[in-house]
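Researcher: Re-running this chain for the archive, since the previous output was lost when a drive failed. Same request as before.
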Amino acid sequence: MSENTFISKVKTVLSVIKSKIAIANANLKKRPVANVIVKGLLGIFLTIFGGIFLLIMAARIGVFGGMPSNSELRSISNPEGTELIADDGKTLIGRYFIENRTNTTFDSLPSNLIHALISTEDIRYYEHNGIDWKSWARVLWRTILLKESSSGGGSTISQQLAKNLFKRRSYWRGTTLINKVREIVIAQRLENMYSKEELLTLYFNTVSFGGNVFGIDVAAKQYFSCSTKNLKTEDAATLVGMLKATTKYNPLNNLDLAKKRRNTVLNKMERYGYLTKPQADSISELPIKLNYVKETHNIGIATYFREYARIDLDNALGHLKKSDGSNYNLYTDGLKVYTSINLSMQDFAEKAVAEQMEELQDLYTQQMRWIKLPWKDTSFLNKVILNTERYKSMSAAGKTHSYIDSVFNVPMDMTVYSQKGDKKMKMSPKDSLIYYLQFLSTGFMAADPTTGFIKAWVGGIDNTYFQYDHVKARRHVGSTFKPIVYSAALEKGLNPCDYYDNTQKTYPQFDNWSPRNFEGGYGGEYSMAGALAKSLNCATVDIMLKTGIDTVVDFAKKIGITSTIPSEPSVSLGAVDISLLDMMTAYSVFMNRGLRPKMTYIMKVVDSEGNILIDNTTEKSQEKELVMNPENADMMRNMMQGVINHGTGGSVKWKYQVTEDLAGKTGTSQDCSDGWFIASNPKLIAGAWVGGEFPEIHLQGNFTGAFTALPIVGKFLHQVEKDKSLKDYVSSKFPEISKEAKEKLSCAYSRYTFDPNAADSTSLDSLGNPIEPVMDEDAPEDDGSSKKDSTKKKNIFSRIFDGKKDDKKKKDSEQE
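Model: Regenerated C-alpha cells:
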C-alpha cells in the first residue's frame, strides 16, 4: 500500500511539472537566450532529481542491501537502562545502561521544545511525508551551485530519525549519497506507520546530546536538573541547538558558542511565529545557566549499594524469561527496580560515616608518625605489590623482578585521594601503595529486622578510590559472635542464670590454648547476661565448651551465617571471618522472636510494559522460617539490652542521645584490626565495621569497636530519631518478655569469692598487668545504675607501644 501511495504521488507531481513546463516553454520561445539558459538549468535539475529518483527506487528494491522489515519498523524500541528507585516509589537512586537513556512520552514534551526543533530542523514537518523537496531544491541551488555553506541541510526530522535508528553502511562509491537515499526510503515508511506525534517522541528519545547522554529526558536532568516537561524556553533552545554538533555547541565545552547557537534557534522560533520579537530578544540576553549533574556509577548517593545491586540483579533476573524466551537485559530492557532504600536514612548513614571516619583517620595518622607502618608482617607490602595490575602486566610482558622493582620506586606526578578532596602529589607507585594502605575503611548497613528490607548501605569511605564493599567483606567479628554462642547455649538448654567460670585456663586438648580477657581481669563467676555485658572471653569459652563447638557452628549457620566456620573453640571469641550482611541477618533473628528474615533491597521489579517480575511485598514472600525458640530469642535480646544499658555499648545512649529501646553488642578483633557494633530497636537494626583495607593492618591503643564503629551507629540512630518522617522506625518498644523468661534471667550478673592472691580484675590490663584507672571526662557521673569498667577509660594513645608479638593461637584468644 505504501508503494502505491508513493507512485501515485510521483505521478501527481510529474503531471503538475509537465503542465508547468508547457506554459514555461511557450513563454520562453519568445526569448531565445533565456530559453537556452533556463532549459540548461532545468536539464541539470531534472538529471539530478531523476538520478535521485532512480536511486530511491533502487534502494526500495534492495539494490544497496537489505532494508528493515515492516515488523522491525513497527517494533522500534530504544535500548533503555534499568532504574533503581527509592522506597518513596519515585526518587531515582541510580541507573544501569549502555546508552544513558530514559524514554519519555509525547505528553511530556513541552511545546517550546517541539517548536524549537521544528523551527530549526524541519519547518514543513507537518506538511511532508518524509521528504521535503523544497529543502532539497534549496540545498541543490544554494549549497551545491552557489556554494553557500550556511544554507542548511535537506534532511527532515523523519530522515534524521532513520539515521539515528539504523547505522549507516560503507559502499565502494557514493557512500554518503546512498545512505541519504536509504534514509529517505526508511523515513517515508516510518511516516506511513507512525503519527507525527509518535515520530517526534521517537526522535527525542533517540537523539544523542553528547557523551553518553541519549534522549531528551536524560539531557534535561543532566544539563539542567529538571524534567523534560519543565524545560524553560532558553534551555530547550540550548539543547536543540546542540543537535547540529553535540561537541562544538555543548555548553560544557564552549559556553559562548553554545549561547550563540541557542540564539540562532530563538531567532528561527521568532521568524516562524513561535516567539514574538520582544520575547526572542529578551531570552537571547539571558546567560546559559547550567545545573550539570554528571551521572556515573561512583558519584552520587548510595554508590556502593548501586554496585551491589547491579551484580545481585543480574543473578536475580537470571531465571526469568521474556515472552520471546530470551533473558532480561539489565542494561537495555528498561526495568524499574523499586527498592527499600530510604534516602533520608542513606543520607544520615553517609554523613555519619564521613564524620566518624575523618576523626578516626586524623587520630590514626597521628599514630603513624610514631609507628611508621601499620603491619607487623614484613612481607605484607611485597605481597600487595605482587598483586597489583601494574606488576602483573609488566611481569606478563617479560620484565624482570629487579626492573619492576625499580619502576615501583620512581617518583611521578599523580592525583591521590584525601579526605579534603583530590590532591596532586609526586610519589613513587610503592609510596602510593603505602599511602593508601594507611586509610581506615568501614562498612555500614541498616535494615528492618522484621521484614529484612535494607534501608541504608555504605560500603566504604569513597567509591572512586576504594571500591571494595565492606558490607559484604568477611572479617574477624570479635565479640559480636558471643550472642550467637549464648543463643546456641539457650537452645541446648543451658540455664542463663547458671554461673560460668571467669578464670584464665589452659586447655591441653586444644594445643594448650589459653584464652585471655580483652581488658584483663579474671576471677569470679558470671551469668550469661553478666558475661555478655562485660564481654568476658574466659566465661564465654566456658559456655561454648558446655554447649559444644559443633552445636554452636550448626546454630550459626541456621540463623544466617554463610561463612565457613572452623570447629575450634576460638570461634567463641569471634576468630572467624563473617560479613556485616550475615551478622545483620543473625542479629535480626534475636529481635524478631526467632524468625529469620531474608535481607533484601528488592521490593518490586517491573518491566517496561508494567508487568511485575519480582514482588517481595506479598504475604507469601514475607514468610519467614522459625530458626530459634521465641522465648530464647527474647531472652537473648533482653541480655543484649543489658549490653547497652550496663555494658560496653552504653555510650550509644549517653553520648549519642539515642533514647529508644536498643539491644546490641560491640566487638574488637586482635590488634584492633576490626571494630564492630550492631544495635537494634524493634523496627530498625544498624551495624558498622571499621578497620584497615586488609586484615594485616593493625590499630593500636583504644581503637575498639566501642570507639571506632559504635559512633557511626550512634550518630545515625540519633538523626533517625530526630527525623519526624521516620518516627515509625524508632517509636516502637520491645515487647515484655514472658514471666517464665523473666524468672530464668532473674539473677545477679556475677558472684565473686575473694582470693587474696588474685589481683583486682578491674585494675589489670589485657596482659594481666596492674594499671592505674583513668576516668573518661566525657562519661556521665556514676549514679549506681550501671556497671562501669575502669579498664576502658585509658587514654587512646596510652597503649600505642604496649603490643607484643604473639603467635596466631594467642591472637585468637584475645579478641573482645
